[in-house]
Amino acid sequence: MASEKAIFITGGASGIGRAVAQRFAREGWIVGLADVDAKGLAETAALLPAGCASTHVMDVRDPDGWVEELTAFTDRAGDRLDVLFNNAGVALGGAFGETSLDDIERIIAINLTGVALGARIGYLFLKKTPGSCLLNTSSAAGIYGTGGAAIYSATKFGVRGLTEALDGEWHRENIRVRSIMPGFIDTPLLDKGVEGSDETVRDKVRRAGLEFTPVEDGAEQAWRAVHGDTLHTVIGKTAKRMHFAARWLPGRLRKQMRGRG
């Protein structure tokens, strides 16, 4: 196994984490699947070639869990960690003024602190594999602040900033740092309820006339991000339109965002 490349994926029980696991497994990679959802992890592992995956029940908010599970995975993978996919996250929609303090703390802890812990602890393992890559999941909400998803957007800006900072800081250590910035990837996260509403995130997206990007497309872009030189890979029509507008039409985008929420 020492000659095979290895990827450790948080949020591997479903969604884009599951799709990325399938994409890398097709290329013969050793895959570590991490999540708090043991049942979902088992379901993902069952979709992969026999013997290529290990499952790791962990909470990204727990530093000791990071150390324990990355140690177990790299021991299995011949002391390699070619890619750490810092992907675990939760979505929350609704008016910020009606968002509970507990929800604010939870979203920050999972989406931002969990990513920072993964990067910091993962660094100890990534630096042992020359040319390794830290891949973080940011979002189109990390391109421009998104009304109706304020705290989620704030965390994804944080992930974007961490990615940019570490891209510069770790370059001389031969660790590449990248992010993916998807729009609305068709995953179970879209089925979460919107605070103060009977709608789900999926309902709101449909009502706004925006598109869903197939999760397989997101996985393919993650593969390309790991193997390319682009710092932030923007995924989906909505994200690409936002990226263009934020750069070239910021005034128009600001007016548009004032109509959301």
TrEMBL record:
Sequence intervals crossing the membrane: none
Superkingdom as given in the UniProt entry: Bacteria
Pfam families (UniProt xref): adh_short
Keywords of the record: Oxidoreductase
UniProt record similarity statement: Belongs to the short-chain dehydrogenases/reductases (SDR) family.
Identification of the protein by name: SDR family oxidoreductase
Organism of this sequence: Stakelama flava
